[in-house]
């Protein structure tokens, strides 16, 4: 937990320990980044309003180092801040004051997603010049590897496995994030990030399509 407010940091660490987690705290981004490099955690919680390196840059640096799930825990609930944090690479966003049961449920969902495996072999899925390999965890465009986060990959696989079918934002929240309800901005921002990586302006057909008022679909 990277949080500069000593009271909040200590209370969250203690509450998470009561929920059965091994939790550690860091008062600055610099301290948290160093701790993650030396003793990697399964999940990192980040406040946005940090001294020195702020939360947005902290997320970007964490994301450059590895694909660890990142959850923002912040009092800032403006849409701009939520979108900016998710675009920086966060997987989820929780607004203070935090209900520890809700936060614990989010963390359990992240853990389930990280451990999720495919029971049966899944062939490479092809959409024009886009190839998705669920088993290998790879995305390629015109043969070149596309760097995607864990969440982006799971979202793309979910859409690919239901090719041509429109999935609503709530369906995607449930299937990818494993949330019963939640902030639909999570879906919109991750779809936007995927589009930047798998679409181009060459005139080739778009595969990731918005169906206004309904949701998203991946089409060949």
UniProtKB/TrEMBL annotation:
<keyword id="KW-0804">Transcription</keyword>
<dbReference type="InterPro" id="IPR011006">
    <property type="entry name" value="CheY-like_superfamily"/>
</dbReference>
<dbReference type="InterPro" id="IPR036388">
    <property type="entry name" value="WH-like_DNA-bd_sf"/>
</dbReference>
<keyword id="KW-0597">Phosphoprotein</keyword>
<dbReference type="GO" id="GO:0000156">
    <property type="term" value="F:phosphorelay response regulator activity"/>
</dbReference>
<feature type="domain" description="Response regulatory">
    <location>
        <begin position="1"/>
        <end position="111"/>
    </location>
</feature>
<dbReference type="GO" id="GO:0005829">
    <property type="term" value="C:cytosol"/>
</dbReference>
<keyword id="KW-0805">Transcription regulation</keyword>
<protein>
    <submittedName>
        <fullName>DNA-binding response regulator</fullName>
    </submittedName>
</protein>
<feature type="domain" description="OmpR/PhoB-type">
    <location>
        <begin position="122"/>
        <end position="220"/>
    </location>
</feature>
<dbReference type="InterPro" id="IPR001867">
    <property type="entry name" value="OmpR/PhoB-type_DNA-bd"/>
</dbReference>
<dbReference type="GO" id="GO:0000976">
    <property type="term" value="F:transcription cis-regulatory region binding"/>
</dbReference>
<feature type="DNA-binding region" description="OmpR/PhoB-type">
    <location>
        <begin position="122"/>
        <end position="220"/>
    </location>
</feature>
<feature type="modified residue" description="4-aspartylphosphate">
    <location>
        <position position="47"/>
    </location>
</feature>
<keyword id="KW-0238">DNA-binding</keyword>
<dbReference type="Pfam" id="PF00072">
    <property type="entry name" value="Response_reg"/>
</dbReference>
<keyword id="KW-0902">Two-component regulatory system</keyword>
<dbReference type="GO" id="GO:0032993">
    <property type="term" value="C:protein-DNA complex"/>
</dbReference>
<dbReference type="Pfam" id="PF00486">
    <property type="entry name" value="Trans_reg_C"/>
</dbReference>
<dbReference type="GO" id="GO:0006355">
    <property type="term" value="P:regulation of DNA-templated transcription"/>
</dbReference>
<dbReference type="InterPro" id="IPR001789">
    <property type="entry name" value="Sig_transdc_resp-reg_receiver"/>
</dbReference>
<dbReference type="InterPro" id="IPR016032">
    <property type="entry name" value="Sig_transdc_resp-reg_C-effctor"/>
</dbReference>
<dbReference type="InterPro" id="IPR039420">
    <property type="entry name" value="WalR-like"/>
</dbReference>
């Amino acid at each position: 937990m990277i949080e500069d407010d000593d009271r909040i940091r200590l209370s969250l660490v203690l509450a998470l320990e009561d929920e059965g987690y091994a939790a550690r705290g860091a008062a600055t981004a610099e301290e948290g980044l160093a701790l993650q490099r030396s003793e990697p955690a399964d999940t990192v919680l980040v406040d946005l309003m940090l001294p020195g390196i702020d939360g947005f840059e902290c997320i970007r640096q964490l994301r450059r180092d590895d694909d660890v799930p990142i959850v923002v825990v912040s009092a800032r609930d403006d849409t701009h801040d939520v979108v900016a944090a998710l675009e920086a690479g966060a997987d989820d966003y929780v607004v203070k004051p935090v209900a520890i049961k809700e936060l614990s449920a989010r963390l359990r969902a992240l853990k389930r997603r990280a451990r999720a495996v495919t029971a049966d072999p899944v062939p490479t899925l092809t959409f024009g010049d886009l190839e998705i390999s669920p088993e290998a965890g790879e995305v390629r465009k015109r043969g070149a590897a596309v760097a995607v986060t864990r969440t982006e990959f799971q979202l793309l696989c979910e859409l690919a496995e239901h090719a041509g079918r429109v999935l609503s934002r709530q369906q995607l929240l449930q299937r990818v994030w494993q949330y019963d309800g939640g902030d639909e901005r999570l879906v919109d921002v991750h779809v936007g990030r995927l589009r930047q990586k798998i679409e181009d302006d060459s005139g080739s057909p778009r595969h990731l399509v918005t169906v206004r008022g309904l949701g998203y679909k991946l089409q060949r």
